[in-house]
Known about the structure:
The radius of gyration is 23 Å and the shape is globular. The chain is an alpha/beta fold. Helices cover 39% and strands 11% of the residues.
Amino acid sequence: MLDERTASSSWPFQHRRCSGLLLHPTSLPGELSAGDLGHNAYRFIEFLAASGIRVWQMLPLGPTHEDGSPYQCLSVHAGNPLLISLDWLVDRGWLHKPRCPVNANINASETYRLNCLHLARIGFETTPDTSTQQAYIAFQAEHAHWLENYALYIALRREQNQQAWWDWPAEERDRKPAALQKAKQRLSQDIAQVLFEQFVFFSQWHELKGYAHQHGIALFGDVPIFVAHDSAEVWAQREYFSVDAQGKAETVAGVPPDYFSETGQYWGNPQYRWDRLQEDGFSWWIERLRTQLALFDLLRIDHFRGFEAFWEIPAGAETAIEGHWVKAPGEALLQALHTAFHHLPLVAEDLGIITPEVERLRLAFKLPGMKILQFAFDGNSDNPYLPHNHQTHSVVYTGTHDNDTSLSWYQGLSLDERQRLRDYLGFDIETNMPWPLIRCALASVADMAILPMQDVLGLGEGNRMNLPGTVDNNWHWRFQWAQLPTTLAAQLHHLNVLYGRCEHTG
């Protein structure tokens, strides 16, 4: 077995030790109901740089379903058009924004954004700019392998009142060539709108990425291992997924009972037909990562253990308990990815039920794992999440997007558990939590330490991003600039210098 200490050759940063903040762009401040890739994203990058932080981690960027979950996207390649900055479009003269709704709810805000995108496309098409038009044509050619199917899928889905693709008329559901050709003609304007939105999203993203790099900030993305059933990829490439002739799922993904749920989690994503993927040289996965590696400097593989074995649940089962483990060809997949990309900057989300086989797979490909401090203090000195058991080639978190804030978590502990935490950290933490836990993460030997934005703001109950196993009231959390103490950047910078995660600059 490969020793963790010798596994750092795949680490993607020149400086071994660094820190990051976890914040999805929708959580940025702004005048509408969710943040975007506009001015506040640039200001956030400046805050990271001033704090001595070199990594911005976020959730998947794809277009979401109605529940807003970035882990159940309409495409594994496309960007979410609701993240597009309207000000960027105004700056280019393509949009004269209508009056912005005041205190609009989510639906009204999204409708306003989409209406503005329609107006911007008209402005784009009527503005003579040869270089931009050429860039638009080049973008479509570069991304044609997924973009054409995605644009048609979205146009058909809108025509069908957002019904899932397996409930469409059979000829369109089953992608009969004549039906698709008629749909392309009938829905040409809707398709053009989707193409424009994707061009704008990718253009804005690469400008933002360039600004981040100018400030020494790396972008850390997230790749869900599974794909939403109602997605362009399952519709267009169903041979790779466990669905029947009518498109209904046969077996679905989830996890057995764990820390987050006594009955496990029934995710509902169709399982892969791994034999077909392997027959094609894993080209589907290679193309998926190619898109994401163009967007990000580093990627987290969500539910990495599914590459070694996955929890297969019969479609329609009442709970995930009815599932069972099935082996996956993870070694062959990762070898194919390494061959395709040579440098593969991945982090394995190795939480939950992790077996020696999963560990061997992760270490064989030199992938850092994750250490969550909120999981550490159960009274067992062998707990792998305790800092004295950390390895250098790993990423330590106070908590993730699936955890409560560290302050709220601490306030929910029993008196005995609080005392155990105080004994371990050696702090009087009653009055200044979560900073002792933040210090603990930054002091860890783990090469990278990631802090949720909620924790550095010291936020308590009611500020978590997601509660696993639920679908309501998730993914909406946001911060406001007024919540940041004027000394916060200096405080973080001091701690990053103190624990060797950035250089002293003053």
